[in-house]
């Protein structure tokens, strides 16, 4: 090797530079896999070293030439670091999303360096994801990447965030119709009367009667009840088997109706304060997917009621409360919403407002046949 000439080598599947200076051999480990782009970056570094040797400005400590962390961190490595940071804060179900997303990042970005991701590249990745996932899921993934880059910038791993202005249009979806009063009576009645469903009768009635989120209902312990069971504290939720704070990270106390109070008093007579109020038939935490598949869906099918997921019990309580004239602020306080969210997502779901009839009256020649309506 000619003194002062820097050579690019591949060592253990990573690029490194090798040269000699004043009779001593030097190696600089780039830490990047061999790709066209990475080799070009290595060539630039090699020319810098050769120029410093020729101008007698060479730094034998190599500090001047070592890649900064932000220059060598691959997209997948950055995501792994971010996921490790987040796993102390998120539920298992959410962590599963992070791990699953890692595979998609590897498929698209391969060994691409995070600092090299531009907004144009980010848009290409968004479009690539859009061919595989629903728009709402694509938006969720882009939000996650935006948070990852913001985290990296705070830790001086990166300097720019190409995801900040990436937009995803999510088409509106038709909102589920709340259950009518007749449907509520039919569902609760079936769970009360049929031995195949009766274990969950109190659970179903409590969900309809309180509008609690599924995880909040599963997390209820007997110590959360007041002494007379007239009120219950909501401050925890179950997700993926893990107990955590509520969705909004705020606690609230819900006063119960006499009917719900009686349900709890009846169940409480032999209960330990640390036991869950509602459990599976085996005495374990309720698995929402299992409950829906084995009990909820069959019950609605037997009754001939259009399927809506169990979470619609929450929509149902809020919508009926609004229609009955309850103060929206009071409903929001009971259900753990802010008022704006409550109006945007729930108002008017029971009986929609009617259009004003401004068309002129026509002759009786125009008749609407009932068969046409049925069709």
Overview of the structural elements:
- This protein is 46% helix and 9% strand.
- It has 375 residues and is mainly alpha-helical.
- β2 (14-21) and β3 form a beta hairpin.
- α3 (75-86) runs antiparallel to α4, α7 (181-193) runs antiparallel to α8 (201-210) and α8 crosses α12 (312-323).
- It starts with 6 loop residues before the first strand and ends with a helix.
Defining traits:
15 helices, three-stranded antiparallel beta sheet, 375 residues, elongated, hpI Integrase, Chain A
The total strand number stands at 7
Q: Give the overall shape, derived from the CA principal axes.
A: elongated
Described by strand count, sense and barrel closure, the largest sheet is: 3 strands, antiparallel
Strand content bin: 5-15%
Blueprint of the fold:
Elements: E1 7-11, E2 14-21, E3 24-29, H1 36-54, H2 69-72, H3 75-86, H4 92-109, H5 119-130, H6 135-154, H7 181-193, H8 201-210, H9 214-219, E4 231-234, E5 236-239, E6 242-245, E7 252-255, H10 258-268, H11 288-303, H12 312-323, H13 328-335, H14 339-346, H15 370-374
Antiparallel strand pairs: 1-2, 2-3, 4-7, 5-6
Helix pairs in contact: 3-4, 7-8, 8-12
Short description:
The protein has helices at about 35-55, 70, 75-85, 90-110, 120-130, 135-155, 180-195, 200-210, 215-220, 260-270, 290-305, 310-325, 330-335, 340-345, 370-375, and strands at about 5-10, 15-20, 25-30, 230-235, 235-240, 240-245, 250-255. With about 375 residues, it is mainly alpha-helical.
């Amino acid at each position: 090797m000619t003194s002062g000439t820097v050579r690019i080598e591949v060592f253990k599947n990573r690029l490194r530079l090798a040269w000699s200076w004043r009779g001593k051999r030097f190696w600089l480990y780039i830490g990047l896999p061999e790709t066209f782009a990475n080799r070009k970056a290595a060539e630039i570094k090699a020319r810098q070293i050769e120029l410093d040797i020729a101008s007698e400005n060479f730094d034998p400590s190599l500090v001047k030439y070592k890649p900064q962390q932000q220059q060598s961190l691959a997209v997948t490595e950055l995501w792994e670091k971010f996921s490790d940071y987040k796993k102390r804060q998120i539920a298992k179900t959410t962590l599963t999303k992070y791990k699953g997303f890692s595979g998609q990042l590897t498929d698209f970005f391969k060994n691409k360096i995070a600092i090299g991701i531009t907004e144009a590249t980010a848009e290409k990745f968004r479009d690539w994801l859009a061919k595989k996932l629903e728009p709402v899921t694509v938006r969720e993934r882009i939000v996650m990447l935006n948070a990852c880059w913001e985290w990296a910038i705070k830790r001086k791993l990166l300097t720019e965030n190409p995801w900040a202005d990436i937009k995803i249009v999510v088409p509106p979806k038709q909102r589920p119709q709340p259950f009518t009063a007749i449907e509520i009576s039919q569902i609760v009645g079936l769970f009360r009367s049929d031995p195949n469903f009766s274990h969950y009768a109190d659970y179903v009635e409590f969900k309809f009667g309180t509008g609690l989120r599924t995880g909040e209902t599963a997390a209820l312990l007997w110590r959360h009840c007041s002494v007379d069971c007239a009120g219950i504290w909501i401050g925890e939720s179950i997700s993926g088997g893990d107990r955590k704070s509520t969705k909004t990270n705020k606690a609230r106390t819900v006063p119960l109706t006499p009917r719900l109070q009686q349900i709890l008093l009846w169940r409480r007579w032999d209960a330990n304060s640390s036991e869950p109020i509602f459990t599976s038939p085996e005495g374990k935490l309720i698995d929402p997917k299992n409950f829906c598949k084995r009990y909820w869906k069959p019950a609605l099918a037997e009754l001939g009621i259009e399927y809506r997921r169990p979470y619609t019990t929450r929509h149902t309580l809020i919508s009926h409360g609004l229609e009955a004239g309850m103060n929206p602020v009071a409903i929001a306080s009971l259900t753990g919403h802010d008022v704006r969210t409550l109006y945007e997502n729930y108002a008017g779901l029971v009986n929609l407002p009617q259009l004003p009839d401004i068309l002129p009256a026509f002759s009786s020649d125009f008749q609407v046949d009932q068969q046409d309506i049925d069709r």
